[in-house]
Amino acid sequence: MLLGDNLHYATALTDPQTRSSWYLALLGLAEHFRTSSPPKVRLCVHCLQAVLPRKPPARMEARTHLQLGSVLYHHTRNGDQARGHLEKAVSGPQEIPQFEDVKFEAASLLSELYCQENSVDAAKPLLRKAIQISQQTPYWHCRLLFQLAQLHTLEKDLVSACDLLGVGAEYARVVGSEYTRALFLLSKGMLLLMERKLQEVHPLLTLCGQIVENWQGNPIQKESLRVFFLVLQVTHYLDAGQVKSVKPCLKQLQQCIQTISTLHDDEILPSNPADLFHWLPKEHMCVLVYLVTVMHSMQAGYLEKAQKYTDKALMQLEKLKMLDCSPILSSFQVILLEHIIMCRLVTGHKATALQEISQVCQLCQQSPRLFSNHAAQLHTLLGLYCISVNCMDNAEAQFTTALRLTTHQELWAFIVTNLASVYIREGNRHQEVCDWLLLIYDFPSSHCLRAAAFYIRGLFSFFQGRYNEAKRFLRETLKMSNAEDLNRLTACSLVLLGHIFYVLGNHRESNNMVVPAMQLASKIPDMSVQLWSSALLRDLNKACGNAMDAHEAAQMHQNFSQQLLQDHIEACSLPEHNLITWTDGPPPVQFQAQNGPTTSLASLL
């Protein structure tokens, strides 16, 4: 460069108009590199860094620090530099006009970074301060309230989270945003359901329903509110074990998601900045509706339907995860797998269930938070698998570990119910069974779990030879399961009643129980109940002199036995079978191959 050119260059840099053009050119170039496919992060960072030495105006300097912090946070592992830039953006001069958005966005990002670095104590005061000074900026005030509420939720401080959501709902009402008020209230309702504060949930959901119906606005936003509302209603019914009562709500939910899928996204932004929120993307809502449908099908005993919707949901998830790394997708995937694993164990596909348990382990290895939220469920599933392959000591160890890890009331009751069944099968743990049954009896659990508890009491009385007492408990189970279409409990109760009548020599009444049990078990399908029912039908027909029917039932029993035996051998031969010994710490990464099955098959045959 010639001397004259240098002088011209130096003069240009001191001219404010020219200097502004430089800033804009560098920022534009940085944005071009950031939005390239794939993003050219290094070049983007260089352009932004080149802005700062040129002494830009304070507002532009703060925004540049925000942009650098954002790019480094989202696209690199350089957390220290990202934190430094974001902290400078947050602590910039307060008197700069139109600086608020920069400050609040930087505070939001910086709190995310603090949480990622496990510095939650630094994130909370940062968000609280930003909330205090953002009341004149509705969008950021609402967003920061949501963010702090989410942070308290992740820490399981649901009381503080509910308080913040209540503050947000009132603020949204004051600034005239009924849409965002509904979002705050529905979010609060979700947390109250988690806390099982049902007396507070009912009036809140009633108010939410009125707001959603009365709000006139963007059709997609309105339908998304309706989906949120209906999801809460459906999960509330399912948590209560009311599988039959939930059907109208579930049907409305499925119709609602079909309506949303036909609507086109409206590019027009809401006039109220407080309305600039969306609960979930349409694609995520579709997966969520599949998920609650699977939950319903599983509880009702429609396992083929559960399988169908699980396949659809997992296929959708795989497509979404190629483009979206949102943690909620992994949560959806784990919950879907948890339900389909239980289906596999019932339908006699233990080897597949075990491989899917291993898949859940792998997903949890990728996310400590996911493992923390699902560790108890994972050990519970392993306990159920252990029962299916007759490894009762391992089942007890898995259930005991799960009890230690959970604080969820319904899961606790589910684990205790299954642990009692393990003690009953072992035959020499009568006092432990009585202790657990007393706990289950006094526990305020769902309709489904109360019905299951009566079944377990009937099973215990059967093994004790107290047949009249067993019949009384089983009839109570039948009454409760028929009231809410709990098909699998109905099938189990019928076949056990049939067994009791067979032992008592009442073959006609036994047949009246076993035949519908077999029909229902075939519809589910429940392989263990089919095996049990076919054995009883064989013995009943033989005792009544019905040779052909006895032969047919014996053939069915042989077929079921062979299927279960082959699946048993395959499952116990898998390397993943060693998971049954894991009871502490994170899930193991690798599994040693088994030489062959080491468990007894007597209970199957």
Automatic annotation (TrEMBL):
Q: Which InterPro entries match?
A: MAU2, TPR-like_helical_dom_sf
Q: Where in the cell is it found?
A: Nucleus, Nucleoplasm
Biological process (GO), any one:
mitotic sister chromatid cohesion
Q: Which UniProt keywords apply?
A: Cell cycle, Cell division, Chromosome partition, Mitosis, Nucleus
- One Pfam family assigned to this protein is Cohesin_load
One cellular component term (GO) for this entry is: nucleoplasm
Q: Among its keywords, does the record have Coiled coil?
A: no
PANTHER family with a match to the protein in the record: MAU2 CHROMATID COHESION FACTOR HOMOLOG
Which family does the similarity line name? Belongs to the SCC4/mau-2 family.
What is the name attached to this protein's record? Answer: MAU2 chromatid cohesion factor homolog
Classification lineage: Eukaryota, Metazoa, Chordata, Craniata, Vertebrata
